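ok here's the first one, seq then struct tokens
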Amino acid sequence: MARPILSIDLDAIATNWRALDRASASGVQTAGVIKADAYGLGLGPVAQCLASAGARRFFVATAEEGTDARAALGPGPQINVFSGHTEGDAALIRDADLTPMLNSIEQITRHFEALPNAAFGIQLDTGMNRLGLEEAEWESVAPYVLEAGPELLLSHLACADDPDHGLNEVQLANFHAMTDGTGLPRSLAATGGILLGPAYHFDLTRPGIGLYGGRPYEGAAPVVSLSLPVIQTRLVAPGEPVGYACTWVAEKPSLIATVQGGYADGFLRTLSNTALLWAGEDPCPVVGRVSMDMITVDVSHLATVPESLSLLGPMQSIDQLADTAQTISYELLTRLGPRLKRRYLESRR
């Protein structure tokens, strides 16, 4: 069976990392966030690409992801785990030389007891109310924890994509209050925080979505393109429906192409009857429901039906498609399924 082809431009990822590194204040280290299989694009190739570009510090969501990152990167680069040291992680952290960002007093206790001499960082809650020690908790354990020598003090901005949101300044002030005077490396900014300016950069920035071509980094080089092979075309007479539940009915004689790819591959059903695919510069509307394995597209206006149609590429970015799907680029990228044939593009070094 024909497979959709997801092309991933590793040079573009490297270009985006270097640009965000330059956008970070002088003397600030720039990491790379490669959680969720590098946002669906392949942890191994992306991690190696970022390391070649100059990244020496990486962030993943779980210890299991950290072991995959270590296998791809080898010894040397620091691999930080956002979820910290959860139950059962000790062997993974030790064997893969991971640095967990401890999020609670319970995690601090677990880590110090299981791996008393192992590296760690601390995540602080400055207003997002998701992960991290709250101010009172931090005050109660800070003397003991600081004596053990954390690698990093970290927090996460909730509204960095909106520069005018008042919570940004509140979180910045809270982070200063909780960390000033510690003398330790600090990190607050992901992609959005980098764009907020040097006040948010501290010692380490950690771009994620900006590496992969998504908002809020409007200047990002595009990273992904996606083409879906045409399986079959058919003429549909006026009054005939297309797809499940008859949500689209032809108003005139129409040539409909069925392409390979559906919600099993990560293409949301909200794209039904709304999205566009492209034949070069010619838009081709999706008609009918997106199904598990197939999408139907009106190609009546094309002089020649190509072998494949483009869902992502020069005519439609990941953010534009996300807008159509009423979601965000993060979700679309991380939903891209294993049936897609991933093709990596890079110049010869």
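and now the second one, same deal
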Amino acid sequence: MDWMFEDFKPGLDSLDPRVKEKTLEIAKQLVSEKNYTKKRAISDAIVKAEEWFYDLGG
């Protein structure tokens, strides 16, 4: 778990490990490149990561 998003660990623990990893990757980008808050970044990243996962056929 990335220390940057440690506060959101309980909400992320229920995700598939691949979705969780992708969520953290996307959230880091949103915070650093688009100045999102951590909370908004996690929310948006979960949606995007789940879409990514289902597009893969997961």
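notes on #2: DSSP finds three helices and no strands in the chain. The two ends are 22 Å apart (CA to CA).
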